[in-house]
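Input record, target 12 of the design panel.
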């Protein structure tokens, strides 16, 4: 047993993180009568939603706000919640389920503490003291470590650089043009935020597919949710973890779509027509000159066909197999707009660019784990959230069991399974 064990607080189950995954786990642990404690590094509840920009809206409709014991029953199921309302809902949810949360506590190390209990246990070090836990649930989410390309270090110091994690509004940026790198949901929405403020924007296009906000009479997420929930009943398994082509696919980007302004699709060519200068994939930089892939025409075609090649086929198959009477898919208008130049190189100073916003996603952060349980992708090795180390669990990660495992809509299902496994121990 570690030397600090004598002074460590003991708890049956420790949940690291009090965002949606941690709170959902707390709900089910409470229902099972399991003594537990949630540790949250932030000073306030609200999870990673507190790290979003001022104009952010949830990308999933209100009907998909499905935390355990809480289903949206308001007057606008098809509407979308702004950031501050999302945060308030989570804080209210934590109060209603009486989640035992300790705020402002950073976990710095989790190690085995064999001998603490008959079936093992864990020594947990934090910046607020040490604990001993029989079980530990990793619920700190997938949005912990902002990813920024190493070559960003070669960008001149007078250029303001920040990750989407730290972006709040256009007014906080210096005057001048802005380069946004990445066209996932963050990149698309931040680009629109800058455009609405009258800023000149350059946009580096990644491989995230465009998607229609609505498809065959419903919000596209409605169909995705149905396939996640009921697809296997009809032999449609494409959104379940076992069908992923490779472990890397767990980190593929979500479709380019927005919950702002009542919810809408985002089309890169339309952004181009509005004045955004489009570039290919960011490749690197040398003394203020940035290089992009010289494949913008093919890249635009790729992002436009991505939905039709995979998701649309799967949604149509589900609708047919389930015998749902849905309207036919609308024909996609042909759009052959192209920029006048591909912009494979960009001189930041010459083009008046004073800010770069990296919308390049996040990496998992389990640096506090002092035990061999992570795979080459820094992802815990597990089966349905139960890791290969007895007593160690994971909830709320992308593709934990299915495509929507990390969403508000379905995180509760994985949390319920993990909580039941803990209670059965």
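The sequence produced for target 12 reads:
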């Amino acid at each position: 047993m570690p030397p600090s064990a004598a002074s460590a607080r003991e708890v049956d189950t420790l949940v690291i993180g009090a965002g949606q995954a941690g709170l959902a786990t707390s709900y089910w642990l409470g229902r099972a009568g399991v003594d537990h404690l949630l540790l949250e590094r932030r000073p306030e509840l609200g999870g990673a939603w507190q790290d979003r920009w001022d104009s952010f809206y949830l990308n999933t409709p209100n009907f998909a706000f499905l935390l355990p014991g809480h289903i949206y029953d308001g007057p606008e199921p098809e509407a979308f919640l702004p950031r501050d309302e999302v945060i308030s809902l989570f804080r209210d949810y934590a109060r209603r389920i009486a989640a035992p949360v300790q705020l402002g506590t950073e976990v710095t190390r989790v190690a085995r503490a064999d001998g603490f209990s008959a079936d093992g246990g864990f020594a947990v070090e934090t910046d607020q003291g040490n604990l001993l836990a029989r079980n530990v649930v990793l619920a700190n989410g997938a949005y912990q470590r902002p990813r920024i390309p190493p070559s960003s270090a070669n960008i001149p110091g007078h250029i303001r650089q920040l990750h989407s994690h730290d972006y709040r509004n256009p007014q906080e940026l210096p005057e001048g043009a802005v380069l946004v790198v990445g066209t996932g949901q963050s990149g698309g929405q931040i680009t629109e935020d800058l455009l609405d403020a009258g800023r000149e924007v350059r946009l580096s296009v990644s491989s995230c597919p465009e998607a229609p906000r609505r498809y065959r009479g419903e919000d596209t997420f409605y169909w995705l949710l149905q396939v996640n929930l009921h697809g296997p009943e009809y032999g449609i398994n494409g959104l379940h973890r076992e069908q992923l082509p490779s472990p890397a696919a767990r980190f593929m980007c979500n479709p380019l779509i927005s919950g702002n302004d009542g919810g809408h699709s985002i089309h890169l060519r339309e952004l181009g027509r509005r004045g955004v200068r489009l570039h290919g994939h960011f490749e690197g930089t040398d003394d203020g000159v940035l290089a992009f892939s010289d494949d913008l025409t093919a890249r635009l075609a790729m992002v436009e066909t991505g939905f039709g090649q995979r998701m649309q086929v799967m949604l149509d198959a589900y609708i047919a197999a389930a015998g749902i009477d849905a309207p036919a898919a609308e024909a996609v208008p042909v759009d052959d707009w192209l920029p006048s130049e591909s912009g494979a190189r960009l001189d930041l100073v010459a083009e008046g660019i004073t800010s770069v916003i990296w919308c390049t996603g996040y990496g998992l952060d389990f640096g506090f784990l002092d035990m061999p349980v992570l795979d080459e992708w820094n992802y815990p090795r597990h089966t349905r959230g139960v890791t290969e180390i007895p007593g160690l669990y994971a909830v709320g990660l992308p593709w934990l069991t299915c495509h929507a495992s990390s969403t508000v809509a379905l995180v509760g299902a994985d949390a319920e399974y993990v909580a039941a496994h803990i209670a059965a121990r």
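The domain at 146-362 is CATH 3.50.50.60 (FAD/NAD(P)-binding domain).
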